[in-house]
Specification:
19 strands; FAD/NAD(P)-binding domain; globular; eight-stranded mixed sheet; alpha/beta; single chain
Length: 401
């Protein structure tokens, strides 16, 4: 039996952050990650400067700033034939620079390596296929995705950092639900030679969904979007044989002529990635010794471009409540107390963000509201700055030091 103080399921930004911080606090930690790195991931890839104090604590700030794309100083709304621009909100604390984007294959490897350097043991590529509690400790069944080898990992605490999009057999995972026409599917691709201004992140609103563009590292444009199931099916029927990502890209460019020539001379790098249906909403944060972080705890609509930040910041909140305790001496009563403290901190930090993102998504997904949104944005461009701030993009969860 492999025994640890904590098992972290998932080695993405949230899981790797939790593993690093708990290992630095003296906990023995195992991280089980099912994918081999580097790996591409459906994600908007933008990171606000509110993450920089945490990056500093994780000892990756210098590497991030050296590798990431250009500073993002402006936010744009592209709707039909119009483009409205406003300044990107800044955090209230003192941070150097602005937010930037970094491809997930680079970011994830950077964070997981940081966790390993702090002493966390990385099981990769392995999957957790079973989880039970025995004698006050968890026993997790894990299987190697490389050679089908099997093992068991015993831990006092389990941290669920596996996201919310995958459906599995674990008690920490969401179950299947019937397909609905309003289900949202997410897509992402990178482009070479795009013409988006270097300091801009834009949001495109189109019939059936919303999209975002930002310049990331390596001179690439990161283009991601969410589209309703019913619109996606209609578009695919109208263009048989064309891949879904390309079908929706064509639809977006026809609907949002205001985006101009951003992609006119651009070349697709690789393939379109897809995931979903996505599951925005607030879920449980603690249950019987299991702590949930990232999308497993709660997921905001991608309208606020804050998913990576929420995953990492929720991991930091959890580490603050757990790291002061001696893992092997934790009783069930102690864990419930820690769980309640983490739950309160999580809700204070993220509940309003998720509610604001839901409101923005409803505006974007209801075509009849577009006739109201466009005149408002034209008359009051700072509406975009205020909206981004309401979405939590400038909220500081990790204090500057």
């Amino acid at each position: 039996m492999n025994s640890y103080d904590a098992l972290v399921i998932g080695g993405g930004p949230g899981g790797a952050t939790a593993a690093r911080l708990l290992a630095k606090a003296g906990w023995s930690v195992a991280v089980v990650e099912k994918a081999s790195f580097p790996r591409r991931k459906v994600c908007g890839e933008y990171l606000a400067p509110t993450n920089y104090p945490l990056f500093k604590e994780l000892c990756i700030l210098g590497d991030f700033l050296q590798s990431a794309g250009p500073e993002v100083r402006r936010i744009e709304l592209v709707l039909k034939d119009s483009t409205i621009t406003s300044p990107m909100p800044r955090p209230r604390g003192a941070h150097a620079g602005w937010g930037r984007a970094l491809r997930r294959d680079a970011l994830d490897a950077l964070l997981l390596n940081s966790a390993a350097e702090a002493g966390a043991e990385v099981w990769q590529p392995w999957s957790v296929v079973g989880l039970r509690k025995s004698g006050g400790r968890f026993v997790s069944e894990v299987v190697s995705k490389k050679n089908d080898g099997a093992a068991e990992i015993e831990s006092r605490v389990v941290v669920a950092a596996h996201g919310s999009w995958g459906v599995g057999c674990l008690p920490t995972q969401l179950g299947r639900r019937p397909a609905r026409s309003s289900d949202l599917f997410a897509f992402k691709a990178h482009f070479d030679d795009a013409a988006l201004p270097s300091d801009v992140m834009n949001m495109l609103v189109f019939p059936g969904g919303y999209a975002g563009m930002v310049n990331t590292d390596g001179g690439l444009l990161s283009f991601s979007f969410c589209v309703r199931r019913d619109y996606l099916e209609t578009l695919r029927r109208a263009s048989p044989g064309v891949r879904p990502g390309q079908v929706v890209e064509d639809h977006i460019l026809k609907s949002c002529t205001g985006v101009g020539g951003v992609l006119a001379g651009a070349r697709l790098r690789g393939e379109w990635l897809s995931a979903g249906p996505i599951r925005p909403g607030i879920r449980k944060r603690f249950e019987d010794g299991i702590f949930f972080i990232g999308n497993a705890a709660g997921e905001a609509h991608p309208t606020i471009a804050d998913g990576i930040s929420m995953a990492m910041q929720s991991a930091w909140l959890l580490s603050q409540t757990l790291s002061g305790a001696r893992a092997r001496a934790l009783t069930d009563s102690d864990l419930r107390k820690v769980g309640r403290a983490y739950d309160r901190a999580w809700l204070r930090a993220f509940r309003f963000r998720i509610m604001a993102a839901e409101a923005f998504a409803r505006l974007a997904l209801m075509p009849r509201t577009h006739t109201l949104l466009l005149p408002l944005a034209r008359a009051f461009p700072r509406f975009l700055t205020i909206g981004a701030r309401m979405g939590g993009i400038a909220d500081e969860v990790v204090a500057s030091t």
